[in-house]
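[recover] target loaded
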């Protein structure tokens, strides 16, 4: 994670997402702008966290590790999304791992300054309340809910989520064949069954294997298979 020393860019993101009234004047000197490259982790499950982060550009993947050691994808998020809000309110360690799918920008504010300037500021508290309430209402048992969908739908949704970022038309990524074991774990299926589904998608002209990658050939058809993208419907 790299801090961007550019106050104009920080101001741009504040204005773009109408955050000036939420992250109000006393907090401004203590705000920091950070960029993460694709594949970098913003935070990892179980780690201590000292900052509240607001995603202002790009896409992140949120996943969890069960007590049995299994990794499961929960969802993908785009702006505007707050990361570390529940941990800040509860004073807990990181609940889920958050990883950049595309290059991302986040605004960070240390808990020290949140405690000093934010605890009695109604617009910021209302903002956090809205975010946390939405998460608990929509994310409750979300991983179990996703497992009710066929593997075809889960894989189609995953491929669309990791391959495209609607806010960045220049971003396009192909899935490495070597990562299919991880993908099987993330979407909650076996590697053998995942390969059967991929072969069926190849036969239907939706994707193809090319030079070690799974390449999307029919984005529209893949979107129709996914229906509403179950990992980005929140």
């Amino acid at each position: 994670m790299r801090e961007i020393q550019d106050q104009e860019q920080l101001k741009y993101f504040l204005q773009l997402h109408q955050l000036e009234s939420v992250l109000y004047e006393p907090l401004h000197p203590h705000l920091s702008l950070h960029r993460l490259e694709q594949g970098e982790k913003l935070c990892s499950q179980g780690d201590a966290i000292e900052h509240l982060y607001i995603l202002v550009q790009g896409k992140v993947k949120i996943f969890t590790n069960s007590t049995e050691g299994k990794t499961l994808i929960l969802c993908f998020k785009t702006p505007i999304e707050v990361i570390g809000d529940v941990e800040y309110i509860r004073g807990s360690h990181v609940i889920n791992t958050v990883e950049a799918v595309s290059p991302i920008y986040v605004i960070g504010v240390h808990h020290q300054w949140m405690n000093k300037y934010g605890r009695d500021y109604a617009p910021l508290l209302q903002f956090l309340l809205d975010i946390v309430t939405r998460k608990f209402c929509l994310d409750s048992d979300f991983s179990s809910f996703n497992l009710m969908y066929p593997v075809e739908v889960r894989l189609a949704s995953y491929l669309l989520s990791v391959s495209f970022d609607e806010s960045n038309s220049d971003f396009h990524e192909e899935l490495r064949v070597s990562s299919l074991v991880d993908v099987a774990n993330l979407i909650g299926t076996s590697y053998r069954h995942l390969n059967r589904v991929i072969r069926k998608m190849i036969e239907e002209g939706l994707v193809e294997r090319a030079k070690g990658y799974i390449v999307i050939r029919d984005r529209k058809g893949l979107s129709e298979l996914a229906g509403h993208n179950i990992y980005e419907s929140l």
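[recover] notes: Residues 176 and 213 are 4 Å apart (CA to CA).
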